UniProtKB/TrEMBL annotation:
Transmembrane segments: none annotated. Gene3D superfamilies: P-loop containing nucleotide triphosphate hydrolases (3.40.50.300). GO terms for molecular function: ATP binding; ATP hydrolysis activity. This is Phospholipid/cholesterol/gamma-HCH transport system ATP-binding protein. Keywords: ATP-binding, Nucleotide-binding, Transport.
Length: 256
């Protein structure tokens, strides 16, 4: 397959991406494509530039050099209005779930929908809320406040809040951080369900190799501003590279 055909199928294309802050080189030549329906897990030590990458993809930071195309549009060439329209197609799952603590679950789900899709009737809004709550397995939580939910439940509601806008791309920032193993497995399964049922393409930032192994079609690692490798879990960890080995060993996975 030639590169042009691949580019046509890609929802994110990044070429020669560089970003520094003063003398600190954070991204130093990142090249990759995220293809439709694919999940990529991005590993990397703290401070390696994972969040900067996500912020550049979503237009919150401007690259110093390189091309960043999302759904066919060059992000740093877009007007604010065009950028806002593009962001509607991207779902962000934040580490802290970013729920509004003063609003019930219903209010948290209603808010993005009513703000972004003003022509919906009350019935359509209610149906959309009920549908996403069903998808994330929390129909019964509709009238609860975020403070009454567990960390895993908050994470699910955070994901439901992005799904309600039917995103094409999902960006997950450490989706299992701070969760117990069983709840982490549930969140991993939800990420897979979202990929399959909503046909999303995702970037998953994680330190959790079980999460990467379960949810991602490909895995990469940022090191010294570059992607060290890109491949399936088996391909990536069949290595003697010390950084990758230390991630692997820390996570105590023995069934490579
Ligand atoms: N707006 C900014 N101004 C200056 N420096 C920044 C800015 N944003 C990020 N950095 C620096 O860029 C580097 C990469 O930060 P980034 O947040 O992307 O790391 P990360 O890989 O997401 O880390 P973690 O795993 O701890 O979340 C850090 O050294 C950080 O201090």
């Amino acid at each position: 397959m030639n590169e042009k055909i691949l580019d046509n199928e890609a929802v994110i294309v990044i070429k020669g991406l560089k970003k520094s802050f003063d003398t600190l080189k954070v991204l130093d030549g990142i090249d990759f494509s995220l293809f439709k329906g694919e999940n990529i897990a991005v590993l990397g030590r703290s401070g390696s530039g994972k969040s900067v990458l996500i912020k550049i993809i979503s237009g919150l930071l401007k690259p110093d050099a390189g091309v960043v195309k999302v759904l066919g549009q060059e992000v740093d060439q877009l007007s604010l209005v065009e950028l806002q329209a593009l962001r509607m197609k991207i779902g962000f799952s934040f580490q802290n779930s970013a729920l509004y603590d003063s609003m019930s679950v219903r209010g948290n789900l209603e808010f993005p929908l009513v703000r972004n899709k003003r022509d919906l009737s009350k019935t359509q809004v209610n149906n959309a809320i009920e549908e996403v709550l069903h998808e994330v397995g929390l129909s019964q939580a509709i009238n609860q406040m975020p403070s009454e939910l567990s960390g895993g439940q908050r994470k699910r509601i955070g994901i439901a809040r992005t799904l309600i806008l039917k995103p094409e791309i999902m960006l997950y920032d450490e989706p299992t951080a701070g969760l117990d193993p069983i709840t982490s497995i549930e969140i991993n399964n939800l990420i897979l369900k979202v990929q399959q049922e909503y046909k999303t393409s995702s970037i998953i930032i994680t330190h959790d190799l079980t999460c990467a192994k379960t949810t991602a079609n490909k895995i990469t690692m940022i090191q010294e501003g570059k992607f060290l490798t890109m491949g399936s879990f088996k391909e990536v960890f069949n290595t003697q590279d010390a950084s990758l080995r230390s991630f692997y060993d820390y996570n105590f996975i023995n069934d490579k």
